[in-house]
Amino acid sequence: MNLKKIVLGVAGIFLHSLVMAQGISFEMDKSWKEVVALAEKTGKHIFVDAYTTWCGPCIEMDRNVFPQKEVGDFYNANFINFKIQMDKTVKDSDAVKARYADAAWFEKTYTIAAYPCYLFFDPKGNLIHQAGGSRTGPEFVTLGREAIDPNQQIAHMHKLYQEGNRSGTFVLGYLQKLASANDPKMEVVADDFIAANSSPLTETAVDVMMFMTTGAESPYFLQLWKNRAEVIRIKGEEKGQRYFSRVIESGVMSKAMTISVDPATGKTNRGINENGLRAYFNQFYPAKQANLQADFNIAKYGKLFDPQLSYEKAKAIVKENGTTDLEATQIQQLANMVLRDGSNQEDVQLVLTFVKDFESASDLSMLQLFTKVYFFSGDLTKSYAYAERAMDQLKKNRPEYEKVSAEEFVKKVTAVMPTPQIVTN
Asked: Is omega for the bond preceding 67 within 30 degrees of 0, making it cis?
C-alpha cells in the first residue's frame, strides 16, 4: 500500500471521528437504570433514540443528523442521550446485547408504533414527550426544545385533554403531536371532537377531518365529500377544491395499473386498468366527468407502458372535450402528450387552439408550454416573448436564478426527454 493511500485512510478515519465527536454523545456503555441515575444526579432530561437495524430513516438520522455539530451542541447540553436497538441480529455487539432486557421493557411499557421513535424523559425517568420520523438538523433541535418546554410536551397536552380542554386550536395542536408520535389515540381524540362539532359542521371540525384524511377511502374524507358544498362554503372554493382534488388524485395510482403473472411462462404483465379507473372516478363525479378523469389518467399512466395509447387518448380528449372540467395542470399535461417532439404540425395547431384561452396566464408551467408550442409552430417572436416572461417568473420565484438568452431557454424547454417505460419481463 503506498504512502498516499495510508495518509488518505488515516485522514478519513480522523474526519469521521471528528464529525461523530461533535454530534450527539450517546451513553453506549450504560443500562437504562444507570442512565436515569445519571440524569437525576445531573438534573438533565433524557433523550432516547429507539431504533431498528432495518429502518431506513433510523440509518439516515444516525449518519446525517445526529453527527451535526449544532444538533450535538444542543442535545449534549440539555440531555443524557441513550440509544436502544429494538430488534436483534446475529451481528449485535456485546453492548447492544447487554440492553436486550431494556429494549424488551421499552417495547412493553411505551407505545412504539413506528421507527425511529424518539422518547424524552424528565430527570426522574418519567416520559414527557415523544415523536418519530426523519427530520433535518434544525427540525431535530426544534423537537428537543419542545421536549424541555413544559407547555409543548405531549405529556402536558395529555393532561390538558384529560382535564377537558376541547378548544379547536388545542385539539388540532394535540392531534399534530399525537401524529408525530404515531400514537393510536389520535383517532379517538379526532372522532370525539368531530362528533361534538359536526352538527352544524364547524370550520375546526373540517380542519380536523382534513388533517386526519389518509386517502380517498378515509372515513374523514368521505364525510367531507358528502358535505362538500358546506366544506367549500367554510374553506373557500380554492382551498376546498384543492383538498378534494389532491385526495382523489392520491388514490389514482393504485387503481390505474394491473399486474398479472402468466402461470405458463412466469412472465409479468403490466397494463392500464381502464375499468378500475372508471369505477374509481364514478364514486366522486357524474358519469361524463368521471369518464373524462378516467381517460386523462389512462393517457397519463399509459406513457409508462404504451406511448401510442397515451398519445391517442390525450389527442381524443383535446379534440372532443376541450378544457372543460380539466384543471390547469391537466391541460398542460395533455398539451405536452399531444405535442411530443413538435414534428406534427396538425397536432401543434390543435394544441394552440386547445390552450388559446390561457395566453395571458402568468403560471410558469403555462408560460413554458406557450414557449414550446409557438416555437414548434414556427412563430419565434412569440416563443421568445414567452421565454422572457417565463424567465421573469423564475427570477421572481427564485431570486438566485440567472437568466439566459431567450434562444437558450427555448432549447431547454423544447428538449424532449424520453419517458421511462415499465417493461414486462
From this structure: no
